[in-house]
Design a protein that fits this description.
Three copies of one chain form a homotrimer.
Chain A lengths: L3 H10 L3 E5 L1 E5 L1 H25 L4 E5 L1 E9 L2 E5 L6 E5 L1 H4 L8 E20 L12 H6 L12 E7 L5 E9 L22 E10 L4 E4 L8 H5 L15 E3 H7 L4 H5 L3 E8 L2 E2 L10 E6 L12 E12 L2 E21 L1 E5 L1 H29 L3 H8 E5 L10 H7 L4 H9 L14
Parallel strand pairs in A: 13-17, 14-18
Antiparallel strand pairs in A: 3-18, 4-10, 5-6, 7-9, 7-17, 8-9, 10-11, 10-12, 13-15, 16-17
Helix pairs in contact in A: 2-8, 8-9
Subcellular location (chains A, B, C): Endomembrane system
GO molecular function (chains A, B, C): ATP binding; extracellularly ATP-gated monoatomic cation channel activity; purinergic nucleotide receptor activity
Keywords (chains A, B, C): ATP-binding, Disulfide bond, Ion channel, Ion transport, Ligand-gated ion channel, Membrane, Nucleotide-binding, Receptor, Transmembrane, Transmembrane helix, Transport
Amino acid sequence: MADPKHWLRSGFALFFEYNTPRIVHIRSKKVGIINRFLQLVIISYIAVYAIYYKKGYQEFDDVQSAVTTKVKGIVFSNYSHIPEIGMRTWDVADYVIPPQENSAFFVMTNVIPTLGQTQSMCSEDPTIKNIKCENDDYCERLKGTIMPGGNGPLTGKCVNSTGALKVCEIYGWCPVENGSPYKNLTQPILAGSQNFTVFIKNNIEFPKFDVRRRNILDLYENDTDFGNCRWNRNDSKGKFCPIFVLNDIAKDAGVNYDDLTLQGGVMQIIIDWTCNLDQSVDNCLPEYSFRRLDRGDYVISRGFNFRYADKFAVKENNTFVQYRNLYKATGIVFVVTVQGKAGKFSFFPLVINIGSGLAMLALATIACDIIVLYLLKARNFYRDKKYLDVQGQDAFRILEEESPQDRMEGSSSSIKKRNVTHSYDGNLEGDGTDT
Amino acid sequence: MADPKHWLRSGFALFFEYNTPRIVHIRSKKVGIINRFLQLVIISYIAVYAIYYKKGYQEFDDVQSAVTTKVKGIVFSNYSHIPEIGMRTWDVADYVIPPQENSAFFVMTNVIPTLGQTQSMCSEDPTIKNIKCENDDYCERLKGTIMPGGNGPLTGKCVNSTGALKVCEIYGWCPVENGSPYKNLTQPILAGSQNFTVFIKNNIEFPKFDVRRRNILDLYENDTDFGNCRWNRNDSKGKFCPIFVLNDIAKDAGVNYDDLTLQGGVMQIIIDWTCNLDQSVDNCLPEYSFRRLDRGDYVISRGFNFRYADKFAVKENNTFVQYRNLYKATGIVFVVTVQGKAGKFSFFPLVINIGSGLAMLALATIACDIIVLYLLKARNFYRDKKYLDVQGQDAFRILEEESPQDRMEGSSSSIKKRNVTHSYDGNLEGDGTDT
Amino acid sequence: MADPKHWLRSGFALFFEYNTPRIVHIRSKKVGIINRFLQLVIISYIAVYAIYYKKGYQEFDDVQSAVTTKVKGIVFSNYSHIPEIGMRTWDVADYVIPPQENSAFFVMTNVIPTLGQTQSMCSEDPTIKNIKCENDDYCERLKGTIMPGGNGPLTGKCVNSTGALKVCEIYGWCPVENGSPYKNLTQPILAGSQNFTVFIKNNIEFPKFDVRRRNILDLYENDTDFGNCRWNRNDSKGKFCPIFVLNDIAKDAGVNYDDLTLQGGVMQIIIDWTCNLDQSVDNCLPEYSFRRLDRGDYVISRGFNFRYADKFAVKENNTFVQYRNLYKATGIVFVVTVQGKAGKFSFFPLVINIGSGLAMLALATIACDIIVLYLLKARNFYRDKKYLDVQGQDAFRILEEESPQDRMEGSSSSIKKRNVTHSYDGNLEGDGTDT
């Protein structure tokens, strides 16, 4: 028994063994059909959904992307009654702020300029709360305070504002912004911006597969041919053109461009690169979609605007005096989002998907077992075949040993015998000593 | 045998069959309790962790987001001993640089202006290494060189700097920046920026579920009511207010705002939208948290600053002379990160989670098998019941056929018989010819 | 039978039971070896690939990151034949536009300035299509039109352009940009930008593990020592230096820096933090890599450029006249991408990986079953051992009851008996009434 040769052989024997579950092979039309149907559902799910539809045979890589944008377009505005604007031509360097942004660009559509501000004293914005005064006493008490929404600390004086109105004086960038001439405008200052075009240059890479693509396809003979194309969802060539008319972007997103211009808004441009690299890389093509990211139907806090200033100095009496032109710029932010992934055949995910699919086949067996063992009239017959009832020494006996008999009443004698045969008898245990 | 009718029927028969494993049903208190306990652990894990806690019954979608920010606030500074600053009111157009950024904003808190620089000749910054000179000879030898950290190529002349110091002359933007008057300032130039507010407008979408939300809730009656709210973590209404006082952001991140202003820093504002769309969409609410992204406790390279310039020309003797105002701006970058996902009930992930859970139940059986077959005193009795020992023709026989006998000694005769019965005898194989 | 005591005991009994599949234990060298080999493959896959290589024993967290950049460098350009440029020193505030960007920076390498533009009338760009005229008649007909690619609406006049050429006059920012003096330049205006350095400050956090790191390591004694380091892939200390020479970035990406400067380009700087937090956190170090994101080998739309303007006003006859300097800036966009994840030991993923591994072991059994039951000569012998053939009442009978006999011909009588014994006889079902 302690023979080392014996143990060696026993160890070797382990390599030449193989365990497989014993199976009850039930021939039954009813259960068979249910079983095959459930198996079909599971196999379909694996094959169609997990492997075919979700491309379970591929490994994937996310896109790495670079986006640069270039807006083009000129508008002319003529507002003789607003001297700050007057007769003006606006170009890219005027309305794209900042001039270069990572994966985004802003197009100014409306503007309230306040030209020639300098640090000095002037009347505060009369629309500010509690700023009206009748004499210096009121303002003197608030001296040094910056009113909520105000433009600078009060100097303590009460001065004339527009008309007969008197307001407290401030020290700050003067004169303060005055939006009233722009209140009743029915169209934005930069009317015509819907015809601006933006060229979105997008270079992508799937590093894992070493595939590089760009959104300028080889459909164009030369720069002129290319420069004349415009994106158009319904045209087989046009839908790959990376030059977009701003109005087309709005229309495709289901937005009225004019709703964006007076109050501003945020649009998203999505470039989707979903590529199946098992096919030719030439089929790896971008798809464009557009969406308004802020909703326009709010009363509170609509649109998008911000203030910026151009600063400069002017030499007066041989010293520099600092000035600035303040602009309240309203417009559309376009955010460019590049998404996508590429898939390519790989052995590992396929094996894993098939493996987990086979594991799920056990579910069909479980469902059929429930039917066979609990629902069919012949359930006790099948239970007998499936189960080998073994009574351990410490079995929990139901109703003092009569229960097994009870449960089996009416079954064949061979079944009764089974229960008897397999009850564990402590005396059998003598062989436990040899290990 | 080759009867096609037979084969057809055999094929049909396949659809009316069903295989289920034969099971040894062991009645034993000890093993039963272990078994049920392990099953309970696994089922709890599936039900509580994978399905309930990790929401295994939902499919998920990531958030699509747009962020725009608007800072408000005015500070007044009065530095009579620094003429470049003097008496000044600073507003948004002065301290937010660039005026509009995608998902981020910078608030300048400290500044070193150098006004009226023009391309000309002047003395180099005296703090630069090896720049001091006694006469032109030294500089002449370095003519054309740009010193490390210098502001332009040396002209070759040695000129007067501050005090009795002589340094080499450069050609470039002159005069060069001089930070010395700002060295001993104990508070930043824009003191009071902690009271600035920022309104963060965040519109999100879960495209898969077609759910759009924004962080301005319907808690407010009108613009004024809304405009007066301030974010406050401890207030049931205030914690949804998207207007933040900069100091509150710092406090909530556990940072002293004053630590950020003199040297600058980087703060992150996280907006988290974790939504359970099985509930009302009104419960899909943002949660705000804040964090300092750079650490302030470093000696090397603390804080955040950059240089920018306002450029302009001045007409002198009817020609334009180009000037610029250079600013070394120190301040706080706020980066807004929107994260979140939404979950909604879906059949597929639930099925997959239940399926993989059932597969894991096999682990309980494996553990119990180890106990029953290797650890219990009655292990040989159970082994007999579980295993049907089959000797293939090419079985690896341990110690020339006596070993199986040996192993079984002491077991009942029926067990010995089992080993004998199932040895494979080549003669049985006659039926192999019919396939 | 309806005794509640009986049911209670039956319910209890459920807790003291344990089911385990009955197993056919086949001793066969051939099948055993195949079985063990397949098990080895699966266990290796689990242990080596899923657990060791893919770190299946860890839970992961994605990196949260903040990036700030600081470019340094001065170039001097001397173009006596281009008065707009002339003799000039360029510093950071001149060539980094905008001065501060979130995770990106732009370095201008080439520029076409158009100084002193003002809103007025001048001759249109002669390179524009259909702009040439002989007299006012042609232009008059187009009055108010903005030509494609033009700079403003036509005034209707035909005026002198360069040389003997006559073109229509426009109203807009005048004079218009004239790129012709820059056409034949063989090197960029800002020659020498390859020596600029950029200091990329990157602070990261793995929030789940509360680990914060930054890319300035404790390798440097003081600011001077640190400031003198330069990134170098091949140096054990230098590869962690976060100060990069632009030319080194290009070289490491396999790009000739000079290819980027004349036409511009887009580079990506990838900072990878892949950290195993089971090891010391000091081993959590950044790795830098570089890549050109746009390809330079295109005819159509090469490089990267944009236009921006500095705006200012000049006092002429005591009123402000608005001017601007327009710049067409060409250069390199550097996009900084921070990626990475940290892993740390966790119990749950380990359990799940082991569990799914054990489930996959069933695949070895399936494969061996196919061999044993369908391919081996002794297949029928093994089938008999594995399968218990049970005929349900509604079994699909192949060739009227002779088929099972037929199929079993040549097998031992005990096998024949099996088929007979287990056919379901409706009379057996009497016990079905007790539930």
